[in-house]
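Holo model, adenosine monophosphate. Inputs:
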Amino acid sequence: MPADIRMRNTASTKRHVMHVTTQVPELQTWIAGRRSAGDRIALVPTMGYFHDGHLALIDEARRQAGKVVVSSFVNPLQFGPGEDLDQYPRDDERDRQLAEDRGVDLLFRPSVAIMYPPGSEIHVVPGAAGADWEGTFRPGHFEGVLTVVAKLFHLVAPDVACFGQKDIQQATLVRQMVRDLDWNVDIVVVPTVREPDGLALSSRNVYLSESERRQALGLSGALAEAHRAWRAGERTAAGVKARMQSHLDAVGRLEIEYIAVVDPARFQPVAAVDDETVVAVAGRVGRTRLIDNIVLSRGLG
Ligand code: AMP
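Output:
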């Protein structure tokens, strides 16, 4: 076989090789190498147990930059007492395969001891946009999120980082942190990926029994109802909420924690809604806590 054909064959069958590391020095050596090669780097922070929502973030990261770094770390700092830290689903081998197949360049999965060595105690404190909603029902949650994201931003120094609209209050706070702490990183928010019936994908959906999964549809159903109300001309928060509430009452057995109708920048309640208003909802189905949201004029997307 002529040499040039052999070379082409080798090139076409060459598999993408993903780096996997648990170690900071190895991560940083790799990053330094990519930087000196002039690569733009995108970061996707996750807690692992990948689903199509994570993969959509990875795809967006790939569109944004030449190299994609994914972190997988179940961050104890963002779980409150009595939350599901110990049961949080994990499957490292499946995640590794999914990430590699999706073209991730480096998967960083540090241990708790590496991220929080004994004696580490300085945290990032969210402002007013983190006080309500998730901030009320999960005290300390955003402090944990912002602290780990800040650490990851320092370790990876990404040009761009991708977050999901699924956790819209979190994405808003990360944007604000980047602005307030003068970070030179673009924050890209990726629309929520849903099951065909509307349920937002979440690693926690694995906790749901078949009947709970049906009840969980009340959340996206209520948001779809809010969008219908908007399309029919409703322009008051009270009217939107009332439509959602009557849907939820009809579904039943969903313990709603909040329905937030807020402005997208500060997460403060609004009385009159416009096309950028965010409608967010949180509730419990059995022992599982679920959240979802829409931008009012866009609906479930
Ligand atoms: P997690 O692993 O749950 O901490 O999520 C990691 C990232 O994936 C966060 O930025 C989430 O907002 C995002 N994410 C989670 N679920 C979805 C979804 N269904 N669609 C889009 N992004 C998501």
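The longest strand covers residues 255-262. The longest helix spans residues 210-231.
Archived with the compound record.
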